[in-house]
Design a protein that fits this description.
By secondary structure, this protein is an all-alpha fold. The chain has 9 helices and no strands.
């Protein structure tokens, strides 16, 4: 019985650089067709990657982006709001813009749910959630907005 030879330092596998991995995923995302479900999968892969947060904000902010990628990005930004105050403000405003997008009911619902962590810090977000929570336009957006207000301690 011959034991397997131990790899030397030259052939030993090195862990992938997280920044390179992020860059590859963002590049892949941007190259995909507009309605590719792989876009949603990529966003899900980045769920707890703080370095990916600016990219996720850009996905939510892009009204022409695939709706399921936008909803996934909104969910991630709800679960892990950016710690950086400037990026956190941008995330809140991107989610607010998504909430106000009349063309995308599903995106509006997820944006409303995601705004809870941002409502106590930005009066415009709180005001928009209050208005959405009282609107009779879409009962699901209304319910999500009310839930976000409760999460923020504003209801």
């Amino acid at each position: 019985m011959n034991p397997e030879p131990a790899p030397d330092d030259a052939t030993r596998a090195t862990p992938a650089d997280p920044a390179d991995h992020l860059a590859r995923l963002v590049e892949e995302f941007r190259a995909l067709p507009a309605d590719s479900d792989r876009k949603r999968e990529i966003v899900a892969e980045l769920d707890d990657n703080t370095a990916a947060q600016p990219f996720l904000v850009s996905v939510v902010a892009d009204a022409s982006e695939y709706d399921l990628a936008r909803t996934e990005a909104a969910t991630v930004l709800r679960l892990w709001p950016p710690a950086d105050p400037g990026l956190r403000h941008r995330a809140g405003r991107a989610l607010l813009a998504a909430l106000n997008d009349p063309e995308e009911d599903l995106v509006r619902q997820y944006a409303a749910m995601a705004l809870g962590p941002y409502a106590s810090e930005d009066p415009a977000v709180a005001e928009a959630l209050i208005a959405a929570g009282q609107s009779e336009e879409d009962p699901l957006v209304q319910a999500c907005a009310r839930s976000a207000l409760k999460e923020a301690g504003l209801a």
